[in-house]
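I am writing to request your help with a piece of structural work I have in hand. What I wish to show you is a protein chain and, alongside it, a tokenised description of its three-dimensional fold. Could you please explain, in whatever detail you think fit, how the structure tokens follow from the sequence? You will find the record immediately after this paragraph.
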Amino acid sequence: MERFGFLSFGHHGPDGSAFDARASLHSAIELAVGADELGVNGAFFRVHHFARQAAAPMPLLSGIAARTKHIEVGTGVIDLRYENPLHLAEEVAALDLIADGRVALGVSRGSPEPAYRGWEAFGYLGSTDPRGADIARDKFPLFMAALRGEPMVDADPQQFPQGQRLPIQPHSPGVDRRIWWGAGTRETAEWAARQGVNLMSSTLLTEATGQRFGDLQAEQIQRYRDAWRDAGHEWTPRVSVSRSVFPIVTDLDRRYFGGGLDGSDQIGVIDGFRSTFGRTYADEPDRLVEQLKADAAVQSADTLMLTIPNQVGAEYNLHILESFAKYVAPELGWKPANR
């Protein structure tokens, strides 16, 4: 583990409540600014629609990028079912230019949403898959081609020479190598490798083999790297995993996380698949170091995302990040972003 960042779901309450959408967004910016000063490597946000969670990442990530210097800004993940691939490519390129090349953007089919076939309300029809995975994958090659600066449309012959084609604008060279695919299965990880993008292993896997979550995820990562090698790509990709990790260093930490948390993996059903959910790590720092060193996926990945309880506000979440940076991360091989 060379890098660690935070992953926020962006939960918020109704308008006018103590922690409504406005408060959640401002808290996210303040947390990212503080994390940047600590040397935390990434500020990542989940994207959900028709829910009181983060939904429109580009304004938030742009605000963070404009106020920080080192921290990566990204998503985990944008749901491509709801996106126009060319418009998204324009926004990603503009964000990357504002951030001076600090974008680390996760995309995928996304997780189940509260709306039934909600992407159709956004105008994206034609999916024959009840989960919409087909249209997400169909959009991905076009999104990547646009990011790479490939011509997308014929130019108006009254303004340009005959046969000229136009790419999207703006263009940010190299941002295509900072796109991640969020994978919830081993097969999807192999598919991502063939596409030539980084791997963002999901907070759960829609597989249950009896293996521990970390071991199952480590196998997924190895399959991804094997497929990457076989595809012959000429650069080295990155791999991230997510964990809930809470160092207990104060009495308040102990009240929040010191008892009643299940420290084992969970098995459940999502999208009709028997799935494995990772455990929560909450312990004294020296014990956390031992536990995370024993987590095969954490050791295999280069980036660890800490899922945070954003509803408790920026101050306490910054305390979580600072405790991890001070007492745990250095023992795992962390390289701060601001050094």
In short: The chain has ten helices and 14 strands. Residues 3-332 form a domain with the TIM Barrel fold (CATH 3.20.20.30).
